[in-house]
Amino acid sequence: MIFYSQKDPAEVLILSMDWSGVLGMGETINSATWVVTNTTNPTEDTAAMVSGSADLSASPIIRQKIQGGTNGSAYLHQCVIVTSAGRTLVQCVEQLVKRGG
pTM for this one? Predict the structure, then answer.
């Protein structure tokens, strides 16, 4: 598992995932969705952590603004893309939220 650097609950960050290593020749990204799950407390509603839509303007790098989080919790960030070839692909990374991160 890949990890993002630690984040303070008050920070607003733009996180990114690079898809260049998995796209086929001439394949592009049609859509991207970013989902955050609290793995420490899976019942937490994390929808507000994802601010706005995923940014495809630097494709094949997908960027997403992330905010908030509960101090001391670990979060799984999932970026799901659909490609021009009709493939659905998922990349995941984890991140710890901690004050003074």
Answer: 0.91
